[in-house]
Predict the structure.
Amino acid sequence: MNHLICALSSTLLLVGVTAPSVALAQQKLVPAQSEIGFVSRQMGVPVEGKFKRFDAQISFDAAKPEAAKIGITIDTGSATLGSPEADAELPKAPWFGVGKFPQASFQSSAVKALGGGKFEVAGKLTIKGNVRDVVVPVALTQAGALTTATGSFTIKRLAFKIGENEWADTSMVADDVQVKFKLALSGVTKL
């Protein structure tokens, strides 16, 4: 009887060891064709910015989108508004606090197919140590070997403590910030 239990345990362990080989294929980010940007409003005027450095770890199969794993890290010190004065302020503590919080991140928790190359990705967005649940609409298009994921969603900057102290006044800088992205990926299965 003990031998049978041992054999069964060994078989289960073997199955557990071989299961990861069936894991989803890892896609590669093509940085030169990708971008993550944001639009805020300063005294009612839209101000566009972007992050120059970010990375994505994505495992996605169009046939099994619910099994996808998506992780994105953003170097907050790479934020730019296109003006030297503003760019010098962004890394400071009231804004991104780069010294203490050098990265922002997104980690998916669920992916739902909506049809027609459209998906809804739920997950946790972390900025300045503040974690919030977000739902991100994503559209996938394919051209040759390249798949492009695009979308946008709105966050409340004060929920992440972006623009603290005198900058918390939403009449100066609006609370809503639109995040926009275009991620070019290689290795995605046919949609």
Summary: The chain has a mean pLDDT of 88.
